[in-house]
Amino acid sequence: MLSRASQLENQLDDFFDKVVVATLIFRNSLELYLNHGICDEYREKLREVETIESKADQLRRDIEVALYHHTLIPELRSDVLALLEEVDKLINRVEACLFKFEIEQPQFPEQHKESVRRLLQTVCECMDQIIYACRAFFRDQNSVKDYSAQVQWLESEADKLSTSLLRAVFRDEQLDLAQRIHLRYFVERIDDLANAAEDISDSLTIYAIKRGI
Amino acid sequence: MSMDISFLFFVSSGLFLGWSLGANDAANIFGTAVGTRMIRFITAATICSVFVLLGAVISGGGTSETIASFGGVNRIAGSFIVALAAALAVFFALRSGVTASTSQAIIGSLIGWNLYSSSVMDTELLLRILSTWVLCPLLAGIVAVLLTLIAERFLLWRRPHLLTQDALTRIALILTGALGAYALGANNIGNVMGVFVEVSPFRDIESGQFSLSATQQLFMLGGLAIAMGVFTYSRRVMMTIGNGVMDISPIAAWIIVCAHSIVLLMFSSRSLEQLLSDMNLPTLPLVPVSSSQAVIGALVGLALLKGGKAINWHTLKKISLGWLVTPASAALLSLTGLFLMEHIGEQPVYASSRYVISETGFNKLEQEGIETWRYRHLAGVEFHSPKAFINKIESYQPLSAQQRKQLLDIAYLSRFELNHQLYRNSHNWLSTEQWQAVQSLKNQQFSYRWQLRDALAALSPQWRYKPDTPHNRSANRQLQQQLTKLERLLEINPPHQ
């Protein structure tokens, strides 16, 4: 019983490690994109994220099957499954975002790039914090609310940054309307990652309360 | 053969009571674990059955003395009805999906027997038993709250992974459940099968290292009935306990089972009583308490710690009502059953006993500090029921519960003979010195219990009671048990056959 638990714990850790690595690659890839546009290195990183995404999918399925097959954590099983699926969707969003950049290649004018970088940094921090919160749910549910508070703060920061970036883009006389709308789509796409993290943190706060004695 | 058929007939009510016990009390042990889906029903039922059986066969030697002294049912047909009434009361409670209390049902049933047979009820003991019906859930609640606080601290300190915590909780639930089942088998088999020991047709089996006494075989039969109850009917009650009163987490499930076992142990542990009395602390009465009450008490304690909002008061009210209805219906069923058995079945359900105070008996009473001058003229007058005897004496002088007991004991007239039959029985429950004293009374006869006791006390200090101090209580109780057993063995044509 204990060895099965420890095997599953390793699988869960592995799953969250994959999200952390995907976030790191996401940040590097967009930095690369802002500096050099689509290049071989970017495509290489995109393939890495694809592999991580499919491995994370497989891990999630294995964990779900094990939880149901051995009727583990019966009272929290559905919460854990929902959590894993939401986190898995976060990796999917990261992958999809990188794909969109590769396909549509939005052109950010030089004067806006710094704002995009700040938004990117805030969103990635937000995603890091949500993984800390997820890990805490399994080991130390009392600190879940601390991490959740940070996620909420970072998400609202990301909102402010994206709003001010969009305002700047739409006031930029040098950009035509099509370009402005194209850029808006990408800014919103990046900001959506922080929104998704916040949704996970909301659910997690409830799950953590249910985890008590 | 006719003995076997009558035995099978009479034992059937004991088996029914065993079945009810399995259906009801197993749910108390594994209900929270199965209700929270931590352990599958089939696993719980298997573990429970195996350990109940082991407990009954290995440690189920002693019948419940409190039950025996409260209602000494002295005819097999009476035992049959008492067991049947208790079993039916539990069964009806189970039918409505409520966890009943087997101990309560037995007490109710015995009250019915006492009333029907005009026996003198030991009101002091009854009050003590009734007080545990309040004390037991209260204590279980307190223990559950303490255990929760300790568990919370432990989890905060160790911070185990959710899955490790889950695995450890499962192991703890299985271990605690197995121990609980063992204790259930050991403590309750006496209630179920104890009254049939004397009419059992079983013979001791011995083959090399392996030996199984007749009593153990009988208890095994009772254990199997309990196991049948577990498998066939306990699921529904488990779900009531697991989910009916409030939603509980697996750790809470373990806390409840643990609190239940601790409280049951507190009410049955002689060592704890000794320890408390050595420390000059008040002791708990050693009476069979209801495991259902312990579980519900623990559940409510836990819920109140969390603010009390999670309790399903409707289910709780239904269960509490069951606690009143079960003993009351058992008493009614017992009364009706005894009446029917005696008048329609034409079977005697209780034996009339004779009470006569002899001149020496009066002296003995005076020695024990009971004033007798008001009813000295009753010397040699025979009474055929304990109630008639006590009523007569009380018309002259009011008596305390203790004095009533003493009077009944001293006036009980029978025949105690130290015959050859006795010496064929095993005597490993006596010390060598005690046995030598018994042997030196060979072929003697006594009309009163106290005469036999005095004769033994004169022969050996080991047959004498020590001064009644908390420290000596356990030794005196053991001596009392030995004397009761000896008297039952020596009594010629005792009423309980």
Amino- and carboxy-terminal Cα gap of chain A: 21 Å
Number of strands of chain A: 0
Point out poorly predicted stretches of chain B: none
Beta-strand portion of chain A reads: under 5%
| Largest β sheet strand count, sense and barrel closure of chain A | none
Number of domains as seen in the coordinates of chain A: 1
Q: How many structural domains of chain B?
A: 2
**Compute the gyration radius of chain A: what is it?**
19 Å
* Biggest sheet architecture of chain B: 3 strands, antiparallel
At the fourth CATH level, what is the homologous superfamily of chain A? Phosphate transport system protein phou homolog 2, domain 2
Number of H- or I-type helical stretches of chain A: 6
- What multimeric state do the chains show? heterodimer
Second-tier CATH architecture of chain A: Up-down Bundle
Describe this structure as you would to a colleague.
The complex is a heterodimer of chains A (213) and B (497). Chain A has one domain (2-211): Phosphate transport system protein phou homolog 2, domain 2 (Methane Monooxygenase Hydroxylase, Chain G, domain 1). In chain A, 87% of the residues lie in helices and 0% in strands. Chain A has 6 helices and no strands. Chain A is elongated and about 65 Å long. Chain B is mainly alpha-helical. Chain B folds into 2 domains: 2-131 and 159-241 and 313-343, no CATH class; 354-490, no CATH class. Chain B has a 3-stranded antiparallel beta sheet. The longest helix of chain B is centred in the first third of the chain and has 36 residues, at 123-158. Chain A binds chain B through residues 1-2, 4-6, 8-9, 12, 71-76, 80, 137-140, 142, 211-213, and chain B through 36-38, 40, 148, 151-152, 155-156, 159-164, 166-168, 170-171, 249-252, 255.
